[in-house]
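Researcher: Batch entry, complex prediction.
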Amino acid sequence: MEKKGLNRRQFLKLTGAVPLVAAAGSIGGGLVFPKGLWAATPKIKGPIRIGYQAVLSGTLAGYGEFHKMGAVMAIEEINAKGGIAGQKVEMEFRDSTLKPDDAIKNARYFVDSWGADFLCGIDSSGQALALAPVMSQLDRPLMVTHAATEKLTEEFVFRKGIKQIFRNCMPTYNDGNAAAFIAKDFPAVKWATVSPKYEYGFTCWKMFQETLTKLKPGVSFTAESWAPFGTTDFRSHINTILDAKPDGLYSTEWAGELISFLKQAKEAGLFDKVKYVMLPVGAAMDVLEGMGKDMPDNIWISARYYFQYPNNKENNGWVARFHKRWGHYPAYVSETAYSAIHAYKAAVEKAGSKDTKAVVAALEGMAMNSPAGHRVFRKEDHQAIYDVPWGKTKSDPKYPFKVMGNMRVIPAKEYFNRPPFEGPGTTPPFK
Amino acid sequence: MQSYVHVILAGLSNGMFIWLVASGLTLIFGVLGVLNFAHGSFYMLGAYGSFTVLKYLGAGFWTGLLLGPLAVCAAGFVVERFFLRHVYRIALPYQLLLTFAFVLIFDNLVKIVWGGGALSPPSLSFLGGSIPILGRNFPVYNLFIIAVGPAVALLLWALLEKTWYGRIIRASSSDREMAASLGVRVPALFTGVFVFGTWLGALGGGLAVPYVGLLTPGMGEAIIIEAFIVAVIGGLGSLKGAFVGALVIGVMSAFGTRFFPSFDMFLTFILMGGVLLWRPQGLFGAAR
Amino acid sequence: MKAEARNAAAAVVLLALCAVPFLAGKFTVYLAMRIMLLGIFAVGYNLLLGQTGLLSFGHGAFYAAGAYGLGFFGLHVSGNPLFGVAAGVAAAILLAILVGYLCVRHTEIYFAMLTLAFGMMVFSLIWNAREITGGDDGLIGIMRSPVSFFGLLEIPIGTDRQFYFFILFFFALSVWAVHRIRQSPFGLALAGIRENARRSEFAGVPVRRYRLAVFVLSGAFAGLAGSLEALLESNARPFMAHWTHSAEPVLVSLLGGLSSLTGPLVGSAIFIAMREIIQRFTENWMLWFGIVLLVIILGFRGGVVGTLSAFFRKAAAPGEG
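Model: Structure tokens for the complex:
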């Protein structure tokens, strides 16, 4: 790769800038002329290649499909308008299978064999963490669009300085900390959980407990039931909760397992017994659509993006275009996929280059508008800061599924952990 | 008291549910001597088949449960007649590998036909809802599963012990050559048993539609491991063993989950290892 | 004459493997490393399956023991990869002795099920001991420090090309070792056990002890492959111990052929290359992979190597008269 870069620069020196700009314009979209910063620094040779990987097989295969819809749509729209910096965007999409070794293999394939400029995707935390050291070796930017572990940005980007990694989706802060900010206003004092029996579930529950205890001393946590990955029968977990008689139930179950859990909990009458229920990923589109009218009312839900928030022209327009293109409302991974490609576009055009160093520098601290609203990539840990809503489930005749009512938005700045991520004053609440 | 009764009920329904899948697996191993990895795929296909009849053809739950698994029998027929039959005589690992290939193929086909996203069936009107037992709601459908399990067991028992076909099947499974020399058309019989086993797995899948409340490509892989464990603990090839094994695993998991927050498959594998060490042929298996 | 030809062929293959990092692209080099790792895993495993006739579904546990052994050793004792690999192999051997002692009393399907149970217990243990193992996140950030011989000589293995030769060294060593084991009286005794255990017992072979020995040996190779993978991918993860991973050496041994030394090696290459090629042209890789498996199982009885060598033997036979 290094050699190619050299050749490219030599080539530029030899040929001069002018013909290249023209060539770039003509490849990109016929009559589109380059403009903006990159017009003056025509270092970019096309096409721009994005390697995307997400899970396309097994029980979570639907997530990969939703990633793909967002990414494909972004690329179609960008290419229709002349591409990135006048260069056509190409994407190759691979099944990540949720296995860390496959994620590493795909990343190496994208960079070393296919010649990707940028990488995107990744669903599981284990994959994201395993990829981190590899990304510094491959030296290409990776935009994580789904994996939520805070360790990725706190540990690997901030402490170990792996600058190639960015994340534009919500980390566990929303699932743990923000949930506590919402829960503190409930009269509930006894809390219990049914959550996934892996790091994600453990971390979120711990964050929720710690933050809620700080916000509302006197709360207690009475029962925990951990459901292994792949659980289909939640009845015994539900019994645990019913026996504990908590005021509030917190659960980071997600995707299909959340659907099974909700259906079975409803049958067992859990929602009549427990008044306050919080589902940090309950507003994911697959869950809303999957539950349909069976979704219980008055449950607090959130997600890493929710299609009705923010209620502005950009988001509503995007949701309408998405629905027209795919016949679905966008899932949160569709939004993060779409915005990730746009983040690369903005960064490349800002930097006037697609070289990793320049793009990383451009992304650091970069602000952008996206369907999910205003995003800023925090300089220290490369985590995008943006707001997502919480709300209570309610019916809406316009949709075949339940939507969010009583929408509440806690500003992300108030609940995101802050650098240096250890010691006092790094976890919420902040004074 | 209320708590224990509900733990037991949850364990019973889960156990009977696993039994429904394990029964076909056990029957096929008992007669054909093949460990069929693809049994989980038949379960998955049964679920998707029933769901399709129910949702897209607008038929009721019962029609779906009848037609879905019947359609899957065709897949079972193809697998046995054109593929599995050719590897009966070679080593066991080849049979495993062959059925594993079908797991990959069926998982992928389901994704192509029905999409990768989870399908979520609507709640049942009949058999839906729940009734209070000792002051806590218990789903009617789970009671139904608790009843279906023994019914299927009874059906199998009657079929194998009380009919002419059952005697032939038992004779062939204990001695293939002898049965053949007595004029039994063993290959046809094997196909028949395999298709019947397929039907049992697919029936489990059809019943899973309201039970799990969710269909995903790959849904068969979790259940096949549980069915495997149950079959091994009970004794490979023993239907009685699989039934008891399913009850043991179901109730044990329910208690484990309720009283040990970090319970998981670990204990079931310890149980499986322990049983194998103590009695390799399983609780009810005949020594080989 | 035959042995000479074989040695010559081995030398040619070794030379070709040495040339790979200089001729092929980076990704090919990476795939070659993965093939060699799977090859070490499988060629060791096939001592058990092909040579002795025991089907284990639990060797992922020893692979994981190797990876975590190296990881812990690197974290707490020394970063020297040679010592790390030794620690990983030692951990795998210890675990294999424990598991093997309990399992070898049974054979056939019961042995397979017992090893499956123990493998999954190890998987659960790793998953649940999150304070030590990192749970499902695994051990991350395992470093490739230079190989140091007591400070006298340091060989860096940081880059992929350097590390390729590190793996190649162990790969060649493993293949040679397995070849010697297969040819040794011990190896022949194992084949005797496979053909007829009872007769072996009458002939005075301590069958159960031999089975345990080969179980531990194959576990050691699994541990070696695991510790090398931990260095290559800089992580160790619980799914290394999962039964789906334990099934990989079974699969590639069957693909390549159980009865030869080269079978599992060829199988490893086919397995990894085929998946990669299929993924280049379709997202539905599972479907096509499954179909290719069917073709190989039904069309190449005895594996690719077995079928091809039988074919050539037949083709050569008339000429030799």
